[in-house]
Amino acid sequence: MREKTINLFLEELSSGAPVPGGGGASALMGSVSAALCSMVANLTTGKKKYAQYQDDIDRILKDTAVLTDKIADLMQKDADAFEPLSKAYSIPKETEGRDELLENALKVASDAPYEIVETMNEVSLIIEELAVKGSRLAISDVGVAAAACKAAVCGASMNVYINTKLMKNKDYAAALNQKTDDMVKTVSDRCDKAYNEVLGGLKA
To answer: Whole-angstrom Cα distance, residue 192 to residue 198?
Structure first.
């Protein structure tokens, strides 16, 4: 999935094909957010004005490289999870063991989007740092990263909820929903704060 050109990805996203879909799109936004953080760090590193933050910027550069790749890989993981779910749905309802297969497939299908949600929490912490420590010449890009991060976490959560809604194990579904709710709120609040700080500085 990650080897596709942007044009091909968008073409497939806009088609009637089941993948890529909302999960892949959310992962793409998340990867863009992490890459923007890396860009801001690259534009900050080595600058005398930000020398006090150099150790933090070095760490951010390492972390964003890992996170950008990780989120891009989750795009493929999300796509791979659709096939077993589709197969489980196609099994006749009266077939013995269908419910168990479907339940397991729903759990697998919710794993990748929840991992995206978790990973965007890490990205949001970096955004929070860069809003303070990043080069003022690239501060607008921190705001864009915050907007993309929030879109990614909110979008990925939709792909968790659409699967938990259909699970028979309501306790498992409720627990996963609650973890997702909590993480989405934390990340969204953090991104909103960073975005508004950047916006306030730009419009001052």
So the answer is: 10
Strand, coil or helix: what is 46? coil
Residue 4 has pLDDT above 80, yes or no: no
Asked whether 113 and 157 are in contact (CB, 8 A), the reply is: yes
Map tokens 């099994």 to a residue: 91
Whether the full predicted model's pTM is greater than 0.90, yes or no, is yes
Q: Where are the alpha helices (DSSP H) in the chain?
A: 6-14, 22-44, 54-90, 98-133, 139-164, 170-203
Cα 167 → chain centroid: 23
Q: Residue 94: what pLDDT?
A: 86
Please confirm whether the linkage preceding 18 is cis (ω < 30° from 0).
no
What's the burial of 184, exposed, middle or buried (CB within 10 Å: 0-12/13-18/19+)? Answer: buried
